[in-house]
Amino acid sequence: MLQPCVFNHVVKQMSFRRYRHYERGEFYVVGVDTAWGGTDYCVAQFLSKTNLDIPTVFHSKVLATEMTPRIHNELERIYNETGVKPVVAYERNNGGVAEIERLATLNRDGKYRIYQEKRNMASTDVTEDSVKLGWTTSSSSRPTMLSMLKEAIDNRLIRIYDKPTINEMFSFIVSQTSSSWKAQAEQGAHDDLIMALAIAWQLYQSEDAPVIQNPVQTYKPTNFMTI
């Protein structure tokens, strides 16, 4: 259930807001919205698919190049504490492709997986991996991802602790353009936290925790000496 409450003790370090510890065995999917300066924020929403909550949010007016090493360190921390590889999707727009490549280079120990864009998302057809890494927000995918996130929030499926994220929801409006209606932040407000969360929710639909194969033990008969 979505419970728009904020814990009293929030750990703030290097633009991270943390609301609880990671748990052993948890599986995380991470949506990342990049920015290249100006008034926009770089944002990452860390969604626990296991517990359906968001324990960690990265939110800072830094360049995407500054954000990527911090996201890398957090992804490795998640793996070290949970024992499960998280999946991360950078938005490919706004220079995100270059940061995806940097993140792939940093992932030398293979402690996390970079999302491969899916074909046939939000359709009745079977989804399959494409060759593209990351998430593309387009005129066709944006309404779908925001609609699915709204449905999840309306049905109280996600537990959100982060007050700035909740505040963005209240400033998110549907406005009429020359040809259609568009959901976006009202004038003077931001939608970076919402877009990163919408990406994370799409990953929730398609990504599963890796299956850990237990080694098969073969029976070896003991050789007895006959007397």
Average pLDDT value? 81
Shape: globular
How many runs of DSSP E, i.e. beta strands?
12
- What is the name of the CATH topology? Nucleotidyltransferase, domain 5
Architecture per CATH nomenclature, i.e. the level-2 architecture = 2-Layer Sandwich
Beta-strand content bin: 15-25%
Number of helices: 5
- Residues in helices, as a percent range: 25-40%
Question: In a nutshell, what does this entry contain?
Answer:
It contains five helices and twelve strands.
Describe what this molecule looks like in 3D:
This protein is α/β, with parallel strands linked by helices and 227 residues long. It has a single domain, classed as 2-Layer Sandwich (Nucleotidyltransferase, domain 5). It contains five helices and twelve strands. Strands 1, 2, 3, 4, 5, 6, 7 and 10 form an eight-stranded mixed beta sheet that branches. Strand 11 and strand 12 (181-185) form a beta hairpin.
Can you tag this structure with a few keywords?
Nucleotidyltransferase, domain 5, alpha/beta, disordered N terminus, 8-stranded mixed β-sheet, 227 residues
Topology (elements, then pairings):
Blueprint: E1 11-13, E2 16-18, E3 28-33, E4 42-48, E5 53-60, H1 64-82, E6 87-90, H2 96-106, E7 113-114, E8 116-119, E9 128-133, H3 141-154, E10 159-160, H4 163-170, E11 172-176, E12 181-185, H5 192-206
Parallel strand pairs: 3-6, 5-10, 6-7
Antiparallel strand pairs: 1-2, 2-5, 3-4, 4-5, 8-9, 11-12
Helix pairs in contact: 1-2, 3-5
